[in-house]
Design brief:
The protein is mostly helical and 235 residues long. 51% of the residues lie in helices and 6% in strands.
């Protein structure tokens, strides 16, 4: 990071400070109410300010926010920017593997494009950060993140074309592979069993025709995911 010109002494991870000001938490820890504003004047300016965007907060914790009556939250990324810290980083926490199901292939193509454009056009951040603690079956996820981080103007079609070209050595297989990737992306919106089964079948049928290890990792990850999707709900 220093080789790239970052002279920050340390990174301050704001991490949705306003989110924790719920009545239950404030009853036990009342200082949370003003903790963010109390801390800012105490910090040196030559630090990296890192937070996940309000866009990610709403999409990840939306149910909890609505249950609290939709209290107003500040854009934590802009809090750091307006306080004069630099660089300010938008952390793409939506792709985190702490939610165990996200360890499996999860392209997040549309979501990644949305976040990258928001970071560039609305927040004007100095950079973005990703989150990776997962097996190689997440190859597509990682590739999508790095591509939109470098160029938020990319479309889903362009990204899928690139991924298919990397996963399939044979040009004649790329069309089917693109359909498999788009179907996998669709599953995470539809949550329909038929979508994940269709994607799994297409990836698996391509394996004997290709030598790509990454394709094998992705295909296996999708197969494992179908087991979880088929698992009966405890309800």
């Amino acid at each position: 990071m220093r080789d790239l010109g970052n002279d920050a002494e340390f990174v301050f991870w704001n991490w949705y400070m306003d989110l924790w000001t719920t009545p239950k938490i404030l009853k036990k820890y009342p200082m949370y109410k003003t903790l963010q504003d109390d801390v800012i004047p105490l910090l040196p300016k030559n630090i990296t300010w890192l937070d996940s965007s309000i866009l990610t907060l709403i999409q990840t914790f939306g149910d909890g926010v609505r249950a609290q009556g939709n209290p107003p939250y500040r854009e934590g990324v802009l809090v750091g920017k307006e306080a004069g810290f630099r660089p300010v980083i938008d952390f793409f926490w939506y792709m985190n593997p702490e939610l165990s199901v996200n360890m499996f292939p999860h392209p997040f193509i549309r979501r990644a494009i949305q976040e990258a454009q928001y970071a560039r056009d609305e927040l004007g951040v100095d950079g973005v950060g990703g989150y990776r603690l997962a097996p190689p079956c997440r190859f597509i996820d990682d590739y999508v993140y790095f591509r939109v981080a470098s160029d938020p103007s990319l479309t889903q079609e362009q990204i899928v074309n690139e991924v298919a070209g990397l996963l399939a050595e044979k040009p004649e297989n790329q069309s089917r592979l693109k359909e498999a990737i788009n179907t996998l992306e669709q599953f995470w919106t539809s949550h329909k069993l038929e979508d994940i089964e269709k994607a799994e079948k297409m990836f698996r049928e391509l394996l004997p025709e290709e030598k790509s290890k990454n394709l094998q990792y992705v295909s296996n990850g999708v197969t494992f995911l179908t087991y979880i999707v088929r698992w009966p709900s405890p309800e």
